[in-house]
């Protein structure tokens, strides 16, 4: 059904609305992108509110002028036709004057509030993004710090072992030096590497265990079992060594034969590591929860494998049992760029 003549859209009739709302839109972005940044953030509150008040007064006057002008041109007949006609509503002019103040004030106030909300939203998003970037940088720095930590006890004990073997002219001294050299080289070569093939990590652990056997020739029985296919499996370097060091630190007796067992099982897309040993240094072991090596490794696991690992530690009176599963370790190729992302 076609519109009646009085219902058709008239650009002239809507032009005052377009002009006044254009003013409000300009104020919206002026306030959000300039005034709040230059004045509010610099704590120039008086200048800011004074400026808002001036803009408000200008808008009220502008609004009144625009609508008065267009109403006269569009709706009122020429003055000579209205000369002898009485006003049908004597209070209309006074009511219209009050409305011409309340209406623009309300419009301006709403646009001002919306503008502030818009600026606050942008600030919140920017702050949130910046905090995430800071957290990411902190995680990277913390991870680098954790990677750089080397157990000093291992270094000193190994050097003492090599020294003792050398003094006694033991034929195993050259082998101990080679093993120690390989271990230290691996640590420094892989310290800045994100992922290494699982087999390289196993070789490093095997060298570490062989070196420990030289320290405790007649008192140590090590069970180190590898299961599954280690090809196409990647792991963060040095992620397991703290657990192995812990077993040697607390699971060796000075009087009895000590049995320590380790197991690494590689499945389709996960690596399962277990460690089990008796506790002989109970007075020291009661502080196992505060062991800096285990604490650091927990943190490394949370940083490198968030929601992709499961660590379980069972601490009884005489036995320490550790079970770790790392998920998402398989890759399509056995060798990848070691600087790739940690988790695919």
Task: Explain how this protein is built.
The protein is α+β, with helices and mostly antiparallel strands and 344 residues long. The protein is built from ten helices and seven strands. The protein has helices at 11-40, 45-75, 79-82, 92-148, 152-167, 173-190, 198-215, 241-250, 282-285, 292-304; strands spanning 196-197, 220-228, 234-235, 258-266, 270-278, 309-315, 319-327. A five-stranded mixed beta sheet has the order 2-4-5-7-6, covered by helices on one side. The chain has a two-stranded antiparallel sheet with strand order 1-3. Strand 4 and strand 5 (270-278) form a beta hairpin. Helix 5 runs antiparallel to helix 6 (173-190).
Q: What structural category do the secondary elements indicate?
A: alpha+beta
Calculate the mean pLDDT score and round it: 78
Radius of gyration from the CA trace?
Answer: 39 Å
Q: Let me know the number of strands.
A: 7
Residue share in β-strands: 5-15%
What is the element string, with H for helices and E for strands?
Answer: HHHHHHEHEEHEEHHEE
Note the gap between the termini.
62 Å
Unreliable stretches covering 5 or more consecutive residues: 75-83, 87-95, 285-290, 334-344
- Report the principal-axis shape: rod-shaped
Query: Can you summarize the main beta sheet?
Result: 5 strands, mixed
* Alpha plus pi helix count: 10
User: Helix content range of the residues, please?
Assistant: 55-70%
Order the strands across the largest sheet as they lie in space.
Answer: 2-4-5-7-6
